[in-house]
Automatic annotation (TrEMBL):
Organism of origin: Paenibacillus solisilvae
Active site: H115, C131
L,D-TPase catalytic domain sequence ranges: 32-155
Secretion signal, residue range per the UniProt entry: 1-25
Keywords of the record: Acyltransferase, Cell shape, Cell wall biogenesis/degradation, Peptidoglycan synthesis, Signal, Transferase
An example Gene Ontology molecular-function term: acyltransferase activity
Enzyme class: transferase
Record's keyword annotation contains Signal: yes
Pathway: Cell wall biogenesis; peptidoglycan biosynthesis
Lineage, top ranks: Bacteria, Bacillati, Bacillota, Bacilli, Bacillales
EC number: 2.3.2.-
Keyword rRNA-binding: no
Protein name: L,D-transpeptidase
Length: 156
């Protein structure tokens, strides 16, 4: 009888501990990551190590697109092309409708980025000066769903 009572108390303590732990547990955030394959010119969105979406992209000529792990450093709607002072909305603007800067060291997130394009025929090729180009409709989707701080892995 004594052993049965101890077993019952132990089961109650374990049950209460589990219930309190579950009640106080913080929701686990999904791990989101962008993976860019320069050889295939594909950007994939991963959630919890599973590819969810993939987009055709354009990358830099030769080795101009940096390889490594970075983060989304900033996001800009309708960016200006400062190098040639081309305003947002201008058909000559090579940055398209959205900019997502990458945390490449010593660039402030403004030298390399994932952005739209005014040259959709370049998608699927290695033609840029180092940035990752996307169709405007694709970068607009990505912009809505990817936050600042998201990991970006760029592979050869």
């Amino acid at each position: 009888m004594k052993q049965a009572a101890i077993s019952m108390i132990l089961a109650l303590v374990v049950s209460l501990t589990f219930s309190l732990t579950a009640a106080n547990a913080q929701p686990v955030e999904d791990d989101m990551c962008l993976v860019i394959n320069k050889t295939r010119n594909i950007l994939s969105v991963y959630i919890n190590n599973e590819p969810i979406y993939s987009f055709q992209i354009a990358t830099g000529k030769g080795e101009l697109t940096p390889v490594g792990e970075f983060k989304i450093a900033n996001k800009i709607v309708n960016p200006w092309y400062v190098r040639k002072n081309i305003p947002s909305g201008d058909k000559r603007n090579p940055l398209g409708t959205r900019w997502m800067g990458l945390s490449v060291p010593n660039t402030g997130g403004y030298r390399y980025g994932i952005h739209g394009t005014n040259a959709p025929y370049s998608i699927g090729r290695s033609v840029s000066s180092g940035c990752i180009r996307m169709r405007n409709k694709d970068i607009e989707w990505l912009f809505r769903h990817i936050g600042v701080g998201t990991r970006v892995i760029i592979k050869k």
